[in-house]
Design a protein that fits this description.
The chain is an alpha/beta fold and 582 residues long. It is 37% helix and 18% strand. It has 18 helices and 19 strands.
């Protein structure tokens, strides 16, 4: 029997394109089982969109029309397994219950829901328990004499987050009813995280060995605001990878069940031990947290992810022009370079350099050199006169000049104003240039350098920014001027300013932040690991005082297991003494 993997890329709620894909698949009359990703019929994640009546009515109409069309088609030797929502509605068309299901679509037959997702993730970026009702029954589909086990995404993971294990429940059902599975199929919408694919494969191999049957995993492709779906669908039989699809682009493959060549070593204890916590969860580490450098392969993966996330966000929101604030520093240089590497035909990218009285000649020279290397228009909009006028205006109006932090912040906000004036003028998208280290400690100006439609580097620590820049230079002919990478980081908002005046060195700062954010260490934990008490307290104080800035920040392209953004929700109004007092 042939299994056809459809790794698709559609915009959420683009029902016409989704329907056309299914219809063309049926009309192709390729025999066998065609497998599409989780919630393919509508897209994922939907958040509260799935509760809006206009969406529900459009989706139900689409599903009904597809059902009627399928029933009119001539029967053939193929079925489609497609992810979608199943609504139970009131008489007024409001949702009583939503289920995340697998639909069987077959020419000449009504569309039917044959399996309901049992494990609803409710951590980090996931909040499926808010929307869906969990299924409770293992799924086995018999087709053409073959027994196919059914799972949806999270169902493949055993975890302390859930009270049941659908994999073991399916195993018990098969043992009890003497069912020998010929294939396991998992429809997924699994977000991208660095190193995640290897962990998916490892878990799938355990399950394949357990059932002594091939395991087919189909994942969606797409960037949904800050969440990336990387595809990389695959089939494993035992410990052998039979086929693997592309990352970050639509792809398809056909797997012939007769030709699978893996061998199996069933071990139920291994399947039970290979849990979500072991592979993904952030734990309290017994040793000092540190940031290991990306391998060259991981650097390329991160670069590809950022290019893909940026371009998909721009396409889905209707932007083809991009404006970047260039400072002569590392962050803006890397953002500009990545966007240039991602550019498609017909798109326009420009850099705006906005020097103040404190900007050095070197910053101008390096910014110009970078733009010449990249072939990007370079425009200079000095803010020193706007800055001087603002100071004089405040002195005249309030009889009190502003100095210190106020003076620094207005420079950043004047730049934000000019950026968005240019954005309005040409209809361009402003891209944020802040990094994860800055976000964590509030080292940015609200409505100043924190502006932008999307954050390219918001999930990369500053030390990772430097590492990625070095990798790009090694593989792309040194397109970033070396002095940009080696010069001391500075906001250039006051004379001779450098970041280390107000922050620990980034190699230590980033390690503390990783311990705080990903490993959830306390201050005492970090101090016990050997970090300086004064440094740890300083970082924690900056972190807890900056929540309001992060709350109003733009979407961040997520590439790590724990990022700021939708998966990070902390109350703004709280007593923060618990960070310090024991």
């Amino acid at each position: 029997m042939m299994f056809h993997i459809h790794q698709t890329h559609h915009t959420i709620a683009d029902f016409q394109a989704i329907g056309n894909t299914l219809k063309s698949t049926i009309e192709s009359n390729q025999t066998g089982v065609h497998v599409f990703p989780e919630l393919f019929l509508c897209g994922y994640p939907l958040h509260d969109l799935c509760l809006q009546k206009s969406f529900i009515e459009t989706y139900q109409k689409f599903l009904n029309e597809l059902d009627q069309w399928a029933q009119k088609q001539k029967k053939s030797d193929q079925i489609l397994l497609v992810g979608g929502i199943k609504y139970d509605l009131t008489e007024d068309g409001l949702p009583l219950k939503l289920s995340n299901v697998i639909y069987k679509v077959e020419a000449g037959s009504p569309i039917s829901a044959i399996y309901t997702k049992q494990l609803l993730p409710n951590y980090d970026i996931f909040d499926e328990m808010k929307y869906f009702t969990a299924g409770s029954t293992p799924g086995v589909l018999e087709y053409k004499g073959k027994q196919i086990g059914l799972l949806i995404c999270e169902d493949m993971w055993s975890s302390s987050f859930h009270q049941k294990d659908p994999v073991l429940d399916l195993k018990h059902l098969c043992d009890k009813d003497e069912i020998k599975l010929d294939m396991l199929v998992n429809l997924s919408a699994s977000p991208f995280v660095i190193e995640k694919n290897e962990k998916r494969l490892n878990r799938a191999k355990f399950i394949s060995n357990l059932f002594e049957a091939p395991y087919l995993y189909v994942n969606r492709v797409g960037a949904e605001d800050e969440i990336l779906f990387d595809g990389r669908s695959f089939v494993v039989s035992g410990d052998k990878l039979e086929c693997e699809l592309a990352r970050f682009r639509p792809d398809s493959a056909t797997f012939n069940l007769k030709e699978q060549s893996g061998t199996y070593s069933p071990d139920i204890k291994a399947a039970q031990a290979n849990t979500w916590e072991e592979l993904f969860a952030a734990r309290i580490s017994p040793k000092a947290p540190s940031l290991s450098q990306f391998s060259p392969e991981q650097c390329e993966e991160v670069l590809e992810a950022l290019c893909f996330g940026f371009q998909d966000y721009a396409r889905k929101n209707g932007f083809n022009r991009f404006t970047i604030a260039l400072s002569g520093g590392m962050d803006s240089a890397l953002v500009l370079t990545i966007i240039k590497l991602s550019l498609k035909e017909g798109q326009y990218l420009e850099a705006i350099y906005m020097p103040s009285v404190h900007s050095s000649t070197l910053s101008y020279d390096l910014s110009l050199d970078l733009c010449e290397n990249l072939g990007i228009p370079f425009k200079s909009l000095p803010i020193k006169f706007l800055h001087s006028t603002s100071k004089n205006l405040f002195t005249q109006t309030f009889q009190d000049s502003f100095e210190g932090l106020t003076d620094e912040n207005i420079q950043s906000r004047l730049r934000g104003m000019l950026l968005y004036t240019r954005s309005n003028q040409i209809g361009s998208m402003v891209v944020n240039t802040s990094n994860k280290s800055e976000l964590a400690v509030g080292y940015s100006t609200q409505y100043g350098d924190s502006v932008g439609a999307i954050s390219m580097l918001g999930d990369l620590y500053k030390s990772e920014v430097f590492h990625l820049a070095n990798y790009i230079n090694e593989t792309r002919n040194n397109i970033i001027p070396e002095r940009i990478i080696t010069r001391p980081p500075s906001a250039e908002l006051r004379p001779d300013q450098v970041d280390t005046e107000s922050l620990p060195p980034y190699e230590r700062l980033d390690a503390i932040l990783e311990g705080l954010l990903t490993y959830r260490h306390s201050m005492d934990d970090l101090i016990s690991f050997g970090f300086k008490e004064e440094e740890v307290q300083r970082v924690f104080n900056l972190y807890r005082k900056s929540e309001y800035k992060r709350y109003q920040f733009c979407p961040i392209i997520k590439i790590s297991s724990k990022s700021f953004g939708f998966g990070y929700r902390i109350p703004l109004s709280k007593d923060s003494n618990f960070y310090i007092n024991k």
